[in-house]
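Per-residue structure
===
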Amino acid sequence: MKKLVILGGGESGVGTALLGKERGYEVFVSDKGIIKNKYKEVLIHNEIEWEDETHSEDKILDAHIVMKSPGIPGKVSLVKQIRGRGIPVVSEIEFASMFTDATIVGITGSNGKTTTASLTHHILKHELEVGLAGNIGDSFAKQVLVENHQNYVLEISSFQLDDIVKFKPHIAVITNITPDHLDRYDYQFENYINSKFRIAENQTKDDYLIYDADDEVITNHLKNHTVQSTLIPFSLKKTFENGVYLENDNIKLTIDNRQFIMPTANLKLEGKHNVKNAMAASTVAHLLKIRKQTIRESLENFQGVEHRLEQVLKINKVQYINDSKATNVNATYFALESMDAPTVWIVGGVDKGNNYEELFPFINEKVKAIICLGVDNEKLMSTFGSMVDVIIETQFMSEAVKIAYKVADSGDNVLLSPACASFDLFENYEDRGRQFKNAVRNL
């Protein structure tokens, strides 16, 4: 019996354990931290062996294959030991893809991937039997086991791509690439870029890579590296014979002389970045032969993703906006760019080596006050202190929202867009976003 060891007892780990057991593996789940009760119950109920707060090395090194949670860096000594023994280490998407013949749409990028994946799924589900997984919702492995969809839209992080071997999406999307998670890539941007491009490394000419042609990082990489797949660019600035571009405020998509046109004014989601997300999603739908009418209607009624520029409430003519999902500077750039009123900006958390310079024009033009919400706000205070009249620091969401309420005037926005990870004060970005929404509702 083949032995499957799973490092990490979270969503992807437990999903893989269930699929592995069903497919005849002897499964062992090991987590250095504490496995959440809801996952422990699933493991116990399914009679899957597990341990937490420790790693039993002898058992782990006896594996035929190891699935490692994306949160565990490849640099850890245990992972190096496993690889040193010649035991394959794979990610959940690699493992799960071995057991499905479904058509896979894989979406990666530093920002926009959740919105693009959710929007793509929203369009496809009207005409196809399709699951949404990866970095979002139920794990891919669990869906392959339980629902066995004919199609999947997967939101895929660079960490998940680091541990693929044969994984190959029929349609790949790279929304953009900006410096993020560099702490995991030896602070080499090039390593992170290569990691993102792994989404296309097993593709053939019968597969597609959809990408942002306005993103110089992507276009430079494509100049210097060969990709086998059929390339379909999208852009707000350039035009293409085969691709998607803007013409007189219309999205214009042409593939093999088949056309789709949609006025940007009809898009439910606002902001330039969402025009790009819509371009990517409609290209996927077009390639999968979804009717134009369905694509149009879906783009017109898609509500957006929780914690991504989510309009919470208007109180005394002040709009409160939850963009907790903005865990890097580029995501916050999009948020500030889309503000059309004076803004009280709540920022801060775990800084991943951020460079805030690209935000300066927006700070001068749109931000009237800054509230720093983090354990260590020193860098924010020194960077932005001289740029705004009001800059305040706090370590409580409820206090941050109360301060914002006092500072904001009628017609202003209050924007939570932290540009940082959340782990200093919150469980994750969802927890941070929910605390913000609760604090706003309690004003």
Summary: The first helix runs from residue 11 to 22.
